[in-house]
Amino acid sequence: MAKVLLHPLGRPIAEVVEEKTYRSNLEQMEALNQLLAARREEVRRGWGEEYVERVHAKGKLTTWERIELLKDPGSAVFPINTFVNYGITFGQPPRTSPAAGVITAFVRVHGRLTVVIANDNTVASGSWWPMTPEKIERAQEVALRLKLPVLYLVDCSGLFLPEQAKTFPGKLGAGYIFKMNSLLSASGVPQIAGVLGDCIAGGGYMPIISDKLFMTEVAYMVIAGAALVKGAKSQHITSLDIGGADIHVHLSNCADERVPDDRAMIARIRQEVAKLPGSAADYYRHAFAPAPPRFAPQEINGLLPVDHRVVYDVREIIARLVDSSLFWEILPHTGEEMLTGIARLHGLPVGIIANNQRLTQHPERRDRTRPGGILYREGIAKMSQFSRSCDADGIPILWLQDISGFDIGLEAEKHGLLGYGSNLLYTNSTNTVPMLTVLLRKASGAGYYAMTGRPYEPIVQLSTPVTRLAVMEGRTLAIGTFHSKLDDNFQILATDPKERAEIEAGMKEVEARIDADMDPYKSARQMDTDEIVAVHELRDYLTTLVEMCYQSIGYRRIKNPRIWSMHDLHVLTEKV
Amino acid sequence: MFQRVLIANRGEIALRIIRACQRLKIQTVAAYSEADADSSHLEQADRRVCIGPAKSADSYLNMAAILQAAEQTDCSAIHPGYGFLAENALFAELCTQAKMTFIGPPAGAMRRLGDKATARQTMRQAGLPIIPGSAGTLSGWEEARALAEAIGFPVLLKATAGGGGKGMRRVDAAEDIEAKYREAALEAEKAFGNGALYLEKYIVDGRHIEFQVLADAYGNVVHLGERECSAQRRHQKLVEESPSPVVDARMRNELGAKICSALAQVGYRNAGTVEFFRDAGGQLYFMEMNTRLQVEHPVTEMVTGRDLVVEQIRIAANEPLGFTQADVALQGHAIECRINAEDPAQDFRPHPGLVAKFVPPESGNGGDGARVRVDTHVQPGYRIPPYYDSMLAKLVVWGKTREAAREGMLRALGSFTVTGVKTTIPVHLQIMQDPRFAAGDYDTGFIGRLLH
What we know:
The complex is a heterodimer. Chain A has 3 domains: 45-278, 2-enoyl-CoA Hydratase, Chain A, domain 1, CATH 3.90.226.10; 312-470 and 519-573, Alpha-Beta Complex (2-enoyl-CoA Hydratase, Chain A, domain 1), CATH 3.90.226.10; 474-517, no CATH class. In chain A, strands 1, 11, 12, 13, 17, 19, 20, 21 and 22 form a 9-stranded mixed sheet that branches. Chain A has a 7-stranded mixed sheet with strand order 2-5-6-7-8-9-10, sandwiched between helices. In chain A, strands 3-4 form a two-stranded antiparallel ribbon. In chain A, a hairpin with an 8-residue loop joins strand 11 and strand 12 (338-345). Helices cover 40% and strands 18% of the residues of chain A. Chain A is an alpha/beta fold. The longest helix of chain A is centred in the first third of the chain and has 26 residues, at 19-44. Chain B is of the alpha+beta class. Chain B folds into 3 domains: 4-103, 3-Layer(aba) Sandwich (Rossmann fold), CATH 3.40.50.20; 132-201, 2-Layer Sandwich (Dna Ligase, domain 1), CATH 3.30.1490.20; 207-451, ATP-grasp fold, B domain (D-amino Acid Aminotransferase, Chain A, domain 1), CATH 3.30.470.20. Chain B contains 15 helices and 23 strands. Chain B has helices spanning 11-23, 41-44, 63-72, 89-97, 107-114, 116-125, 141-151, 177-192, 249-265, 297-304, 308-316, 402-414, 425-433, 435-438, 446-451; strands spanning 4-7, 27-33, 47-52, 77-79, 101-102, 155-159, 169-171, 197-201, 207-215, 221-233, 236-242, 270-278, 284-290, 333-340, 342-343, 349-350, 353-354, 357-359, 364-365, 371-376, 383-384, 391-399, 417-419. In chain B, strands 13-12-9-10-11-14-22-20-19 form a 9-stranded antiparallel sheet, sandwiched between helices. A 5-stranded parallel sheet of chain B has the order 3-2-1-4-5. In chain B, strands 7-6-8 form a 3-stranded antiparallel sheet, covered by helices on one side. In chain B, helix 4 runs antiparallel to helix 5 and helix 7 (141-151) crosses helix 8 (177-192). Chain B is globular, with a radius of gyration of 21 Å.
């Protein structure tokens, strides 16, 4: 009886948390959500109204206007790496580079999810800043791994030259974009490019390696623009005359077709996407249509305490993320500090691995409990086995991290957590099934790695406004740094008031510095995480990501639910 | 927009296309044969390239020479005009692979709708009435006879690849059908390399009514109303007008909407004309589709105020139409007379030679608010080459009403002086003065009866 029976999960919010706690959580989370919304808006404005007007004066649309036209009416756009370069400046006079001058987003076009890479023409005419190549390459990587069509909206005046040393030479320098173009092409991933303005020097390769390339009447592609040609060859000629549609569409065949303007370009690109195979997501849904959770995702705002030390029930979070709030918990009685099981997101099977924050019983010393959110032997083994089974079955894995790290101490070493942990790392490193990671709150130490943090290459890693990504908490490092001056209760040993004050100040300084580093905007700025998403938005992001995992056929194993390894796991561990 | 367009045609249409390009600030390259080396239209083009000797097959039909001329002059697109290569799907395909945009429909749409049997099927599926006849091509004369007996004589056997009356036979009785079938098939085989025939009911005393359509690359299709082209001699149109005296707004809207949806479905693009035959009872039947600009397009331009050649070029450059069906309004009435160098007294035999005097009526506003337009490449002293068609000019007159247009045309014809060659002007004067034409009561047999 290889039935897949999912069970109702979760309770009404009133039964889960007290009204007062809910309100207090909500208030704190809403403040963070407002900050997120304001910062997104700040990035979305690019360099501001003046530059929007400049774009319009040239008869062009802004990049966001283009994306709004490109997407299916009424569908949502899911950007990634919005906050790259957020809050830092380059050059003299100092200049900001909102979104690193390029928008990368998942956009639904004729029902298919596409990866859109669009230079932001309101930020230095779409130039490439430090981190811009990495951001483009990241989006290309997602497309390559999930075999999703890539749509390039090119409007780029080239490298931001004052900072060229940071964008040109390295492994992930601008040239790697074209290597990714080539790999995408070689892997049969459709690429469609529209050139809607400047496309100078290396930028030219990005569209030309694409399967389809369209140019508007103001677009040009050149190895060198008019200024360089004038300098090198003393020829006075416009860039449009050197590399406009008349040259590249009709004479050089570097482009396929010309279109009059941005609107026609978007219409033309949409036509091409419609020619591609449709999404296989519905094929893999079997009988299950997308269904909303029975408990509103908005409630997560009041469920997840902003204070990372406060415990909550992760099952109630999952109940607010998954279809119909149904869940099949696998290995429920082993390693209870971890939660593993199957749910559906938009009708599609997903394996979920999450940290249970609550106190759980010690498996051998039944009289003792131990804190959750920590990796112990059974939990690690359970994750490894579940992860392997998902990989075997082709079920995408969703990691929900709120992890303080591995257990430490004599028992941990005697149990050989290094070995069990390494086995988990090996499993996750060699999985071929798509994995998605959400840093719900804490993502500390090796726990961040073990649960498929960014270095373990999840397809996408999302942070929330309360994510704290670090080796350890600030307080922990402060204690570690000053441990010789503290007693067993972490109190300062010194009695001299001056010395006590110095130690106190030193510890505070360490704690503050680490806490600042754990700011999710800082990791987003460095591209250590792919996007900051409000917790009530997670459901929509995740359903979209899961659909992306199932859209293309033929490139990875996807078993039908009758023949899952998951059933073996179930039958071996439960009385069936 | 294209920087430079090559014009692969001659005569008045070459000049007409140059004018449209000038409106769009496009440079033009005139491709010409040795016989046209002194044609006046060459002076209007920015550049000129000789593509071969006088014979059409060596010049205006020489695909390789035309493409090479376009390449050498850095052109972006080619306008084929009408006739010559305008409906040649192979040429459209060769242009596409050379990245010279063919200003016309894509080769696939041309093939699909240019094949008469397929076009009939397409239109029938779209709910357009088609002349009763075979569903596709015929398997042999036996099938033709059975079908003819079912729908009733007379019937018309037609070559599926046909045009210009070749491979076409009228059959009035069952006993004639075998012989006529063999004749038509043989003629079609010789002329088009394709002997396949289809059959349809022959409509006696019908009217030729055609709808002008425009379709862009984004699936937008509009019609620009109809033209009446019943004034024909031996399937050659002499006078065209728009709107038709026998099509009312309701019929125009209903048929037009069906045509547009049919063409949207097959992915048609650029300008095209859907031809209908109207029987004495007033029923319209789909006949065939012309996948090109028509000679008589100016009457549509006069009543809709739209420049069809400009629209063709814009569509070819992937511009969206920019207007909808609701924006199309027919205003007033326009009549076109084809002024050919032909001798009406000798069964309209072409009459090439030296045009000594050539004084067309003045273009612009005439009396009664009528407007006169003359499309011509001819100037005094022009020698009409014997190799091509004999058209000298298209005289188009617009008036607020059909009667005003007719009167304006009479005046214009009266002031049109051509000496040195015989022309069709006297016949046009006769037509315009005929009470049946004046009443709008004429059919495809009209000119035959008028002249004999």
